[in-house]
Write a structure and sequence with these properties.
The protein is an alpha/beta fold and 344 residues long. The protein has helices at 8-16, 32-47, 87-96, 126-134, 144-153, 160-169, 182-197, 201-209, 213-237, 258-269, 301-308, 333-343; strands at residues 3-5, 24-28, 52-57, 75-79, 98-103, 117-120, 239-241, 246-250, 274-280, 287-293, 316-319, 323-329. It has 2 domains: 3-211, inorganic pyrophosphatase (n-terminal core); 230-343, Diaminopimelate Epimerase, Chain A, domain 1 (Roll), CATH 3.10.310.40. Helices cover 42% and strands 18% of the residues. The strands form 2 sheets. A 6-stranded mixed β-sheet has the order 1-6-5-4-2-3, sandwiched between helices. A 6-stranded mixed β-sheet has the order 7-8-9-10-12-11, with helices on both faces. It is globular, with a radius of gyration of 19 Å.
């Protein structure tokens, strides 16, 4: 699997530099890949008898890194979270303590100090990377289901090497029906539980560690019904721009499901189109969240979204070519839409 920046040795040296007296924090993303990444990192640290002082689950948001300046830490990890995207705030954190990033989102090339960062190819998700790193520290076989679930949930299976890894554990798995496979269903169950229990994401994290899947399945059933309802609403109500092959939709479901809806519609219903699902941001008043997908990969969604919010105050955007997101103040919506149509 491909490392774009950093190395396995960088990670091992960083881990070995931590003492039992040091205060360690983990910051990870709010999806299956982020949860699995946090679990694997926790297990690595525990194998060295190192204590975790705090664990936080966060999504992309301008200025959010500054909140960790108030935390007490000597070592701070970011997993499945491109902290390098916020270079000024990252430098402030580096002055406070030692920081290490394991991430598979595009590198911020403007970042001057690129030390303490592992960046992997987009298809080599963060939990997969940590799973491989963890083999040096503990028996990872009991966690094979979880890493496979994260790979599928993060849509990394189109990569042939990644798919070979999945097949080495699940020989009967097929790309065409991958979301109905055992790890595919586990990933969807975890993803839906994260939505249902939000903001108490630590509850889901602990349920996975305890292998308490009965609680997770209850939450999954409720969210699945909501998803199907909103998929139909999207199909019936989204604006379609045929010259851009764009479906544009602005609505706010009760649960935080726009990302899942965008993924499902993009992969199953409109794989040749660009999907943009905007919704009011729950954690930030008067802000709009962006969820975008395009499966054919002929456009770079992350770059396009960054251009669309260029100059907007208190805004952020980025991600992969096929899947990207961000948020911006609602007052910029007309300008955002205008720029999006121009860029596409």
């Amino acid at each position: 699997m491909k490392y774009l920046l950093g190395s396995k040795n960088d990670f091992h040296e960083f881990i070995n530099s931590i003492s039992k007296e040091d205060k360690v924090g983990i910051v990870t993303h709010t999806d299956v890949d982020g949860i699995a990444s946090g679990i694997f990192l926790q297990k690595i640290l525990e194998s060295k008898n190192l204590k975790i002082n705090f664990m936080e689950f966060i999504s992309q948001s301008a200025g959010i890194l500054k909140s960790f300046l108030k935390k007490d830490f000597d070592y701070l990890f970011f997993t499945d979270w491109n902290a390098d995207n916020y270079s000024e705030d990252l430098e402030l954190l580096r002055k406070k303590g030692k920081v290490f990033i394991i991430d598979h989102h595009p590198l911020n090339e403007n970042l001057k100090d690129k030390s303490g960062i592992i960046k992997t190819d987009s298809g080599y998700c963060s939990s997969h990377c940590l799973f491989d790193l963890a083999k040096k520290y503990f028996d990872t076989k009991p966690f094979e289901k979880l890493v496979c679930a994260a790979i599928i949930a993060d849509y990394c299976f189109p990569d042939e090497k990644v798919f070979e890894f999945l097949k080495s554990i699940y020989p009967e798995i097929k790309k065409e029906t991958i979301f109905e496979s055992v790890p595919g269903k586990i990933g969807r169950t975890i993803d839906n539980a994260l939505i249902y229990y939000k903001p108490d994401l630590k509850k889901v994290y602990d349920l996975i560690l305890e292998e308490n899947f009965s609680e997770l399945k209850k939450a999954n059933g409720i969210i699945e019904n909501e998803i199907e309802l909103w998929i139909e609403k999207f199909k019936n109500e989204a604006e379609y721009y045929p010259e851009k092959n764009l479906y544009f939709y602005y609505a706010t479901p009760k649960y935080r499901i726009p990302r899942i809806i965008a993924t499902k519609i993009s992969s199953k219903d409109f794989p040749e189109s660009t999907i943009i699902f905007l919704s009011d941001k729950e954690s930030k008043k008067d802000h709009i969240s962006i969820n975008s997908r395009n499966q054919i990969g002929k456009i770079k969604l992350g770059e396009i979204l960054r251009k669309c919010i260029g100059g907007f105050k208190d805004s952020t955007a980025g991600g992969h070519d096929k899947a990207a997101g961000g948020d911006f103040p609602k007052k910029y919506l007309p300008e955002f839409k205008k720029r999006l149509l121009e860029e596409l």
